[in-house]
Here is the input.
Amino acid sequence: MNTITISLPDALKSFVDEQVAQHGYGSCSEYVCELIRQDADRLRLRGLLLEGAASRRAAPADAAYFDALRERRRER
Here is the structure.
């Protein structure tokens, strides 16, 4: 595992320390890693949403659509 060092103003350091204490993180490092993971997940989701928005329009997912899915499953 690699190490990085960051500098925080006192107010942010206090905030991080409070979050660590209140939410059961073992260290400031765990808290920051969780924030980075959440941001990466958010960016992946944003990419998927943009990809979906740019894709061609699909058939509506109405009752007939689900009936056809059930029928294909029964055929297998």
